Amino acid sequence: MTPRNIFAGAPCTTPILMYHEVIEVGPATVGEQRAFSITPRTFEMQMRYLHDHNYQTVFVRDVAAYVRAGKRLPQRLVALTFDDGTVDVAETVLPILKKFGLKATIYVNPGFDGVNDRMTLDKIKKVWVSGLIEVGSHTLTHVRLSDVPPEQAVAELKGSKSLLEKLLGAPVVSFAYPFGARTEETMHLVERQGYKNAVISGLSTQLSVEHLFDLPRKSIFESDKIAGFVRKLHER
């Protein structure tokens, strides 16, 4: 068994933050889109806070590498993540990241290729070329892995990884479970397809070598504004 490692017992100071869409929220924005979206103004204020307070952003693959190597994570380190790979990543998120010199990991469904507000494969490659974006997999078509037969789950995992690696010409090692749904079996399936880490929605685990395939994330909402954002940066 891999030995447990929580960095010599020190509390983890590297939050992994979870975003979805960064869009203008209006009367026509309803349901989950409204619940999980934040406005460009709020997002920019949050990124300005990170910049002005000397936070360093890293890709999720780097967080996992620190954990795997048993290294103590530096102070003021944060990982930004975006699920689904919607077009706002290219149109809104990336320009704000560039403005403040920040990085993020995005989890995409390459099987959609421009459908359902997702970025096209061409746009995915363009944001990756910026050097500020790590591209991770979110399955081919955003299926709940625990609800489909194992062979379909494997096809979704392998197909997404293969398509993205061919597109980018680089390894794709990070994964996010659609709907945050996972079981012991789906976590094993993800690992067996060659991924090196996976993130969840929530704080049910700690950053440790035992939990590289259910790394915890903190959801960021429009209602967090700056006060809630700062609280989530510092809470344990």
Write the layout of secondary structure elements.
Layout: E1 16-19, H1 31-36, H2 40-52, E2 56-57, H3 60-69, E3 77-84, H4 88-100, E4 104-108, H5 121-129, E5 133-137, H6 150-168, E6 174-176, H7 184-192, E7 197-199, E8 218-219, H8 227-234
Parallel strand pairs: 1-3, 1-8, 2-3, 3-4, 4-5, 6-7
Helix pairs in contact: 2-4
Key terms for this structure?
disordered N terminus; 37% helix; 236 residues; TIM Barrel; 6-stranded parallel beta sheet; two-stranded parallel ribbon; alpha/beta
The shape is globular
What are the segments in which pLDDT stays under 50 over at least 5 consecutive residues? 1-13
* CATH level 3 topology: TIM Barrel
Taken as a percent bin, the fraction of beta residues is 5-15%
Count up the helices: 8
Q: Kindly name the structural category.
A: alpha/beta
Terminus-to-terminus distance: 27 Å
Please give the domain count.
1
What is the alpha-carbon Rg in Å? 17 Å
Main sheet makeup: 6 strands, parallel
CATH hierarchy class name: Alpha Beta
The fourth-level CATH homologous superfamily is: Glycoside hydrolase/deacetylase
Estimate the helix proportion, in percent.
25-40%
CATH architecture: Alpha-Beta Barrel
- Tally of strands: 8
- Return the string of H and E elements: EHHEHEHEHEHEHEEH
The pLDDT mean sits at: 89
